[in-house]
Write a structure and sequence with these properties.
The complex is a heterodimer. By secondary structure, chain A is mainly β. Chain A has no helices and eleven strands. Classes of the chains: A mainly beta, B mainly beta. Chains A and B meet through strand 5, strand 9 and strand 10 of A and strand 5, strand 9 and strand 10 of B.
Chain lengths: ~120, ~110
């Protein structure tokens, strides 16, 4: 079974630009969650999509948005990039039906650098 | 926000030594997960503990969930260089992660 894939793996942008990251979950998984990882803040939850609907949301500004397609693939978009958005962005997939017992499987991440 | 506190933040040991890392919270949680992350990669799930007092073993790794389900520990026996990485505990649907323990095992 193929794992979670994320594209691109590395990205360099400049302040003010926008960026779109892509995630393909494990086959059969309907939930996709996005996380931001930085040395200072650690791993922080951005949002979760389940069956094309945002089900949970973290405490990030509206510049961060996402969507999920009917095949469960997901994209996240960051507009008006700031230097502080430089981070590893991780996507995780799960069946989405396990309640609090929700085993998530992570992709390798997209390393975003904002100059 | 139900925070998870991990300790120690950093651990550097020699191959063959034993170690324990801890994950604590002031709140009860229904389940807790342990992940290991290597540089440039995403976290990999090691185990999920659900029942208070539960002990799970994964080769040289032993995971324990506190009786009150507020704390957990990960014990590694005879650490090897391949155990090097960031160990993270996490809880909840919107996975709340601890800050992690960076483990370095020197050969």
């Amino acid at each position: 079974k193929a794992g979670v894939t994320q594209t691109p793996r590395y990205l360099i942008k400049t302040r003010g630009q926008q960026v779109t990251l892509s995630c393909s979950p494990i086959s059969g998984h309907r939930s996709v969650s996005w996380y931001q990882q930085t040395p200072g803040q650690g791993l922080q939850f951005l949002f979760e999509y389940f069956s094309e609907t945002q089900r949970n949301k973290g405490n990030f500004p509206g510049r961060f948005s996402g969507r999920q397609f009917s095949n469960s693939r997901s994209e996240m978009n960051v507009s008006t990039l700031e230097l502080g958005d430089s981070a590893l962005y991780l996507c995780a997939s799960s069946t989405g039906t396990g309640g609090s017992y929700n085993e998530q499987f992570f992709g390798p991440g997209t390393r975003l650098t904002v100059l | 926000t139900q925070l998870l506190e991990q300790s120690p933040q950093f651990l550097s040991i020699q191959e063959g030594e034993n170690l324990t890392v801890y994950c604590n919270s002031s709140s009860v949680f229904s389940s807790l997960q342990w992940y290991r992350q290597e540089p440039g990669e995403g976290p990999v799930l090691l185990v999920t503990v659900v029942t208070g007092g539960e002990v799970k073993k994964l080769k040289r790794l032993t995971f324990q969930f506190g009786d009150a389900r507020k704390d957990s520990s990960l014990h590694i026996t005879a650490a090897q260089p391949g155990d090097t990485g960031l160990y993270l505990c996490a809880r909840g649907n919107k996975l709340v992660f601890g800050a992690g323990t960076i483990l370095r095992v020197k050969s």
